[in-house]
């Protein structure tokens, strides 16, 4: 699954094992990074877990990446358990390569840009120093379930983590063993989180249950829940109607007025207005219909919406909000630079190993044991025609005495 981010004057895209960074305001050569050519783990520790057991080598696929708030730093992590830190100014360069304990699912810089927090599939969050780029990570907190998303409050006071078991946990960053609140209400795994910079006390969450919820996270109070429409077209007889579409991305504009929500396998973007009068609420707005399924989306510092598509002809679209609606920007110079790079390197952008859904295996599976039991019982009855049913007590007495009277009753 390809991912997109815009910060400052850079647009970065990760797909498969490649990172592509494009300068969208000047004609510069794009920065390319291939994880398969990155620094390798020392042989004495290679393929060994903490308990000494061997582990399968990864494919160098990038699992998560993030810009720092200023855009001067970027970090990524791959399935070979590397954490790679880059400096983006004045030019792109790799600062360090470190190793994490487990494969990671999300990462986030603090606002002061002195730490990068990494959440992994075992439920742990580690902190890695930015000023000491060779220093190993420090364990900060842990869940009992796989972590899927993580954000840090703009004042660096809280770290907010979401897991497969529908929990959103608000912890104090300086002492993460102190839990400030839980935000509970989703019925499936929580797949994405976002804090609007213009409303730093609110939290938006998306889930496999097809809802977006608005929270006042410091108290754990839910302000609103919005059920999303199914983005798929009308089902054909050959389509698997049981497939569910999780929310895979929530993006908020820098001014905090607009929220874009993307679901898996969607050819549309659902838009909301985030309002604060008379109370906090999400108001549905006119959505965007896309020519192809989207991989990801993000807002740039100017409040324009970038959408990454699964199409070589138009791999990225740019929308601007004017006259109370979203309009497609077709002649923008920044868009032209991005299109030129992505079209010419489509084989790098197109990830042949990508799976259709990265969330499908996370849904709950229920079992109806009673129906199976009743079916087996009926089959046993049908195999013994002519036999009258008897109570368990009568059967036990008959077996104990060895004498059976009329109607299967034990005799004394």
Automatic annotation (TrEMBL):
| Pathway of action | tRNA modification; N(7)-methylguanine-tRNA biosynthesis
Q: Name one GO cellular component term.
A: nucleus
Any one of the GO BP annotations:
tRNA (guanine-N7)-methylation
Where is region (Disordered) located?
A: 380-412
Compartments annotated for it: namely: Nucleus
Q: Which InterPro entries match?
A: Trm82, WD40/YVTN_repeat-like_dom_sf, WD40_repeat_dom_sf, WD40_rpt
| Keyword annotations | Nucleus, Repeat, tRNA processing, WD repeat
- Could you tell me which residues the WD repeats occupy? 203-225
Q: What is its main location?
A: nucleus
Q: Name one Pfam family in it.
A: WD40
Family assignment from sequence similarity: Belongs to the WD repeat TRM82 family.
This chain's function reads: Required for the formation of N(7)-methylguanine at position 46 (m7G46) in tRNA. In the complex, it is required to stabilize and induce conformational changes of the catalytic subunit.
Q: What is this protein called?
A: WD repeat-containing protein 4
Source species, please? Aldrovandia affinis
């Amino acid at each position: 699954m390809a991912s997109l981010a815009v910060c400052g004057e850079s647009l970065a895209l990760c797909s498969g094992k490649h990172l592509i960074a494009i300068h969208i305001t000047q004609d510069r050569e794009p920065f390319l990074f291939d994880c398969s050519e990155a620094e390798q783990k020392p042989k004495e520790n290679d393929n060994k877990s903490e308990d000494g057991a061997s582990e399968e080598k990864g494919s160098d696929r990038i699992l998560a990446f993030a810009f720092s708030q200023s855009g001067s730093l970027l970090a990524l992590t791959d399935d070979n358990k590397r954490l790679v830190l880059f400096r983006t100014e004045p030019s792109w360069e790799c600062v360090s390569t470190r190793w994490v304990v487990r494969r990671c699912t999300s990462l986030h810089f603090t606002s002061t840009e002195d730490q990068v927090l990494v959440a992994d599939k075992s439920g742990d969050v580690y902190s890695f120093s930015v000023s000491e780029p060779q220093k190993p990570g420090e364990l900060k907190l842990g869940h009992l379930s796989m972590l899927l998303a993580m954000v840090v409050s703009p004042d660096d006071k809280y770290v907010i983590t979401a897991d497969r078991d529908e929990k959103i946990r608000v912890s104090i960053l300086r002492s993460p063993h102190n839990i400030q609140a839980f935000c509970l209400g989703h019925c499936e795994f929580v797949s994405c989180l976002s804090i609007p910079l213009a409303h730093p006390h609110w939290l938006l969450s998306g889930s496999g249950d097809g809802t977006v919820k608005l929270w006042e996270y410091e108290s754990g109070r839910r302000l609103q829940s919005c059920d999303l429409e199914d983005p798929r077209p009308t089902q054909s007889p050959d389509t698997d109607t049981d497939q569910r579409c999780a929310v895979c991305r929530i993006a908020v504009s820098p001014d905090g007025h607009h929220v874009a929500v993307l679901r898996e396998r969607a050819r549309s973007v659902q838009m909301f207005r985030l309002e604060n009068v008379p109370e906090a609420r999400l108001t549905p707005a006119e959505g965007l219909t896309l020519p192809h399924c989207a991989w990801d989306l993000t807002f740039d510092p100017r409040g324009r919406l970038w959408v990454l598509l699964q199409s070589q002809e138009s791999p990225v679209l740019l929308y601007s909000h004017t006259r109370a609606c979203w309009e497609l920007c077709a002649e923008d110079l920044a868009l032209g630079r991005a299109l030129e790079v992505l079209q010419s390197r489509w084989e790098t952008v197109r990830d042949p190993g990508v799976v259709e859904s990265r969330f499908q295996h996370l849904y709950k599976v229920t079992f109806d044991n009673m129906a199976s039991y009743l079916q087996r019982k009926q089959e046993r009855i049908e195999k013994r025609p002519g036999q009258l049913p008897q109570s368990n007590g009568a059967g036990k007495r008959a077996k104990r005495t060895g004498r059976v009277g009329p109607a299967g009753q034990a005799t004394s």
